[in-house]
Amino acid sequence: MTTRADPARSARITLVTCLCLVGCAGVWQPLSPEVLASGAPQSYDRALVVTRDGYERQLTTVVVARDSLSGTRVDSTELHISVALADVVRLEVPEAGAPSALAAAGGFARDVLVEVGKFTGSFVKCIFGGRC
Fold it and tell me: N or C: the chain end with fewer CB closer than 10 Å?
């Protein structure tokens, strides 16, 4: 017995996959080197740290001190790390006022539905109306 693919199910799976991809992505804003060089203590809820060896670490509860920064790895609530500021190539924090992942996913889904509607309309006119 042969089963036919359910196009609605395929569309739902594709949409959920796209939403997950958009939701996992974040908008990061690099901090200027002057901010780190100022020596003033700073703290951030989340940060992306890139070191000289090219390793990227996402940290939570980040504290920047005069000569180092420390934080907790996002994949562990118990693994705290410290990095010398001399080893930090780039420090990024989530962009303030960035659209939420849900809003971005909604906008993406809306754009996809608009394009699918346009294609469907053109297809129906071509097949049934003879206006290709």
Answer: N
Q: CA 115, CA 60: separation in Å to the nearest integer?
A: 39
Length of the chain: 132
Tokens of 76: 């562990």
Per-residue pLDDT of the chain (132 residues; tens, 9 = 90+): 455 556 666 555 565 554 444 444 567 888 888 877 787 888 999 999 999 998 899 999 999 988 899 999 888 777 889 999 999 999 999 876 655 566 667 777 788 888 888 888 888 888 887 776
Pairing of strands 28-30, 42-51: unpaired
Distance of alpha carbon 83 from alpha carbon 14, whole angstroms = 40
Pairing of strands 80-84, 56-64: unpaired
**Nearest-10 Cα torsion for 7, 12, 15, 16:** -150
* Number of alpha carbons in the 13 Å side-chain half-sphere of residue 121: 6
Predicted structure pTM score: 0.54
Give the pairing of strands 88-94 and 80-84.
Answer: unpaired
CA 114 from centre of chain = 24
